[in-house]
Each structure stands twice: as structure tokens, then as C-alpha cells.
Amino acid sequence: MTLFTHELRQSFKTLLVWAFTVGVICWACILLYKSVEDQLATKAEIFSNMGSMTRAFGMDELSIASLDGYFGTQITMIFGLGVGMFAAMQGAASLSKEEEGHTSEFLHTLPYGRLNILVWKYLSLLCMLLIFNLIVVGLEALGIWQVNLDFSFDLFLRYHAQALLMQVEIVSLAFLVSAVSRKKQIGLSLGLVLLLYVMDVMGRIVSNIEDLNYLTPYHFASGADVFSQEKLEPAYHGVAFILIAVSIILGTRGCDLPEKGLERLSKRFISRFENKQDL
To answer: Where do the TM regions start and end (predicted)?
Structure first.
């Protein structure tokens, strides 16, 4: 539990900055809808007839002239990318920061096993995601209440439940990257988020590669699909849970390499100390 609270304290400022930044942007964009509602009503037909671009961003399923459609296509895109980047950054730094900062040696002197350390670190990541979502969802709900228009709150909650699973998958993949690297791979993890997002966009446009949608969490966490109440295949969730489990298992195995290196370092230090004692 000490490791858990330490991780939260260490990343709390970053968490607040990212959560309120994404949340305030979403809140402001929701309030903006009130002032552009009439303009969107006249241009909704244009947006729904842009061919591939319309399908890519889900505007063939929803009309941005309604608050449901506006939220499902615009706000969810902002939220999805923002929270995805946050999850990737935190996951990528979770373990590698100990190697990069040379604090892993100290961690292994504590009365905790390697698996114990990994579990508490992973749980702290999940807790940060929950706090992030509570802040952003609260600000979004505030904006919707201020706009005071018809809105499907049941679909709103369903979307955020899907988005939370998406975040867990991304943070698990980034956690795996952190476990097998001695340096913070922030750039790689952010690139992974953008790649997963582009895979979803391309999978909606090009029918020949639509199977890629099974590999990206942005597909089942699509606001357009949720707010249009499109039926989702259980296979998407199944693949997500498999990727999460595999990432956690490989992440715990990947940390064997740094630990073996630490054992060799400890033996070398002890042998040098004994040689000095002999002199």
C-alpha cells in the first residue's frame, strides 16, 4: 500500500493538469454547441455527404445537428485522444523511470517481492485512470447541464464505460513497453496511441483492412457507434481482455531481465567490498 500511495503522490500533479486540461476543453466545446447550433443544423447534410471522411468520423451514423450527435462525433474524439495519450505516458514511465533514475536498486532492498511491486504500480495506474475519468466526466456533465438540451445520459455512461476499457488496454500495452525498456519510451507510447487511432479510422474507410478494428480499442470505444446504438460484436471486448492479460503477463516476465542484472551488480559490489576488507 505504501508503494501505491507513493505512486499516486508522485504523479498527482501531472494527473490533475492532464485531467483538467482535457476536461475543460470538452466542457468548453459542449458550451460552444449552444452558439453554433443553428449553423450546424444547416451544415449537417453537407457533413453527412463527404464520402470516406464521413464514415471515418462516424458522421454517417449521427447528425451533428443534435447534441447526441455532436457529443458522439466531436467531444468523444477529443476525450479519446487526450485520455489515450495520458494513459500511454503514465504506463510507459511506470517502471522504466526506476531504471532510468537508478532507484530500482532501492526498491529491491524493500521487503517487497518483484511481483508485489509490479502489482501495486499497475493498480496505481488504474486508480489514476479512474480519477482522470471522474474529473472529465464531471466537467462534461456540467457542460451538458448548462446547455440544457435533450441528451441521452444512458449512452453517455455507456460510452465512458467502453472508453475506460480502452484506457486499460492502452495503459497495459504501455506498461509492457515500460517493463522491457530501461528508458522512458514516451514517444513510442504516444506513437502507439496515434497508430491505434489511425487504424480505427482507416478500418472504417477501407473495407479490405476492416479486420484491423479488432486490434484497436478505439473501435469499440467509438462515440459514434455508441450514440447510434450500433450493436457491437463481443469479439472486440474479448480481444481487448486478451491483450490486457498478455501485456500484464509479459510485463511481469520482462522485468526478470533488470532484476537479473541487479543480482549481478549486487554480487560484483559484494566481491569488491570483500576484496577491500582483505587488503
So the answer is: 12-33, 122-147, 159-179, 186-206, 235-255
| Rounded to 5°, angle at Cα 215 from 160 and 15 | 40
86: which 3 cell numbers? 495520458
Over residues 156-184, the pLDDT tens digits come to 999 999 999 999 999 999 998 888 877 77
Structural domain of 179: 2-278
The count of domains in the chain is 1
User: What pLDDT digit, counting tens, does each position of 237-267 carry?
Assistant: 999 999 999 998 888 876 554 444 444 434 4
Residue among 36, 135, 31, 8 at smallest CA distance from 83: 135
Cβ count within 10 A of residue 277: 7
- What is the rounded CA–CA span in Å between residue 165 and residue 45? 33
Alpha carbon distance 95, 187 (integer Å): 15
